[in-house]
Amino acid sequence: MYRKGILGFSSVATKLINGGTDMFVKNTKPAEKDVELGPKTKAGFRMAHNASVRTVNVTKSTVGMINDVRPLLNSEISMKTTDI
Fold it and tell me: Dihedral of CA 76/77/78/83: which sign?
């Protein structure tokens, strides 16, 4: 049903988060006035955003390295299987 590993977890987590978000929006009334965020809260959001950006960059870099090595591994594997 679901792919195993990180992609499977990501898929399930995304569906659960979206379901929870839909339920929250459906069952919550809008606030009477806009919420004002203080400087500490804004700094916290900025920190979380920056951490998220760094995580995405590390993931992108890792996937790039894997994609660079994959053709080498494929050719090495095919050479070994033809020797058998």
Answer: positive
Q: Are 11 and 3 in contact (CB under 8 A)?
A: yes
d(CA 60, CA 57): 5
Task: Give the pLDDT band of residue 1 (cuts 50, 70, 90).
Answer: very low
Mean pLDDT of the chain: 85
Token digits of residue 61: 């870099």
Structure tokens at 16: 């659960």
What's the rounded mean pLDDT across residues 64-80?
Answer: 78
Contacts of the segment 51-56: beta carbons below 8 A, 24+ positions apart: none
- DSSP string for residues in 40-77: HHHHHHHHHHHHHHHHHHHHHHHHHHHHHHHHHHHHHH
What 3-state DSSP class applies to 2?
A: coil
* pLDDT for position 46: 96
